[in-house]
Amino acid sequence: MNPAPNLVLVGPMGAGKTSIGRRLAERFGLSFVDADHAIEQRTGATISAIFEHMGESGFRERESAVLAELLAGEAQLVATGGGAVLDPGNRRLMQERGFVVYLCAGLESQLKRLARDRSRPLLQRPDREQVLRELARVREPLYREVADLVMDTDGLTAAEASSRLCLQLAERWNGNGVAA
Ligand code: S3P
């Protein structure tokens, strides 16, 4: 049994980290925290505005600072942004302070789930499929490296995915949460 004090979700945009994360947090009695939302609250700016004015590197700095702050706490479910695994320090911290679940999704599901999204700066271009493919090429090995558990969300609703995950986590994770 892994005794990590937090649950951490990693995976690409459109894998369902927020929708699955909210349900799981409820079932385990954890506080749900969306790292992107926490960044927006701390900086008083949207993710798009941070990318626009400070560039991706400025965003990544803030992302690392917020993750360090969040993961110092416990009994939380932290849904991370798709690029949070790029930084080795973030990965180390996630592993030290969390039971890490990689939610994976195929390109088709991602495109479908993100079809109407206008808020993600990396996808504000016509060649979304290419962008997602390239991001996956670089990041997939990092998601796997950091993960204690891998779950494929393709073809599952958020409710189905969280029910399955709940069962698997009950066997593998002995954190602060109490399964309802
Ligand atoms: C990003 C993913 C986004 C957000 C930002 C950058 C990425 O989070 O952090 O737009 O680099 O993949 P979600 O994965 O929650 O969409």
Question: What brief labels describe this structure?
Answer:
single chain, 180 residues, alpha/beta, Rossmann fold, five-stranded parallel β-sheet, 7 helices, globular, binds shikimate-3-phosphate
H/E series, N to C?
Answer: EHEHHEHEHHEH
Number of domains: 1
Q: Count helical runs.
A: 7
Percentage of residues in strands = 5-15%
The helix fraction, in percent, is: 40-55%
Instruction: Assign the CATH superfamily.
Output: P-loop containing nucleotide triphosphate hydrolases
The SS-based structural class is alpha/beta
How would you characterize the largest beta sheet?
5 strands, parallel
Number of strands: 5
Point out poorly predicted stretches: none
List the helices and strands and how they pair.
Elements: E1 6-10, H1 17-28, E2 31-34, H2 35-43, H3 47-71, E3 76-79, H4 88-97, E4 98-104, H5 107-113, H6 128-146, E5 149-152, H7 158-172
Parallel strand pairs: 1-3, 1-4, 2-3, 4-5
Helix pairs in contact: 1-7, 2-3, 3-4
Shikimate-3-phosphate binds at residues 13, 17, 36, 47, 81-83, 120-122.
